[in-house]
Design brief:
- There is one protein chain.
- The protein is an all-beta fold.
- Helices cover about 0% and strands about 45% of the residues.
- The strands form 2 sheets. A 6-stranded mixed β-sheet has the order 2-10-9-4-5-6, with no helix packed on it. The chain has a 4-stranded antiparallel β-sheet with strand order 1-3-8-7, with no helix packed on it.
- The radius of gyration is 13 Å and the shape is globular.
- It starts with a strand and ends with a strand.
- The model has no long low-confidence stretch (mean pLDDT about 95).
């Protein structure tokens, strides 16, 4: 079964760090660029970061640049997002998607169900 399953979300205080993971199955993840998107309550889906198939090129939204790091382990078919210096405005459902950066974050043909990240004091 082709799917993406996220894990690692939770509730943290502002300034803390968290790493979320995305396990791919049913397809060869290593030949695809991969992406993280997020959706805050009452807001549109937002593109966060993308990484190329080999992990050599990464791009970030301005809102997370310098705080978040995307990475991947192709041997494990797993994508990661390390989030540092978390802010309340980072509170969202974080999902991974198959494909590179898109102006239509809602248009990915394969996207996981997401893992909730809540940042609150």
């Amino acid at each position: 079964q082709v799917q993406l399953v996220e894990s690692g979300g939770g509730s943290v205080q502002p300034g803390w760090s968290l790493r979320v993971s995305c396990a791919a199955s049913g397809f060869t993840c290593s030949i695809y660029s991969m992406t993280w998107v997020r959706q805050a309550p009452g807001k549109d889906l937002e593109w966060v970061s993308s990484i190329d198939s080999r992990g050599g090129s990464t791009v970030y939204a301005d809102s997370v640049k310098g705080r978040f790091t995307i990475s991947r382990d192709n041997a494990k078919n797993t994508l990661y997002l390390k989030m540092n210096s978390l802010r309340p405005e980072d509170t969202a459902l974080y999902s991974c998607a198959r494909g590179g950066r898109s102006v239509r974050p809602d248009a990915y043909s394969l996207r996981g169900q997401g893992t909730q990240v809540t940042v609150s004091s």
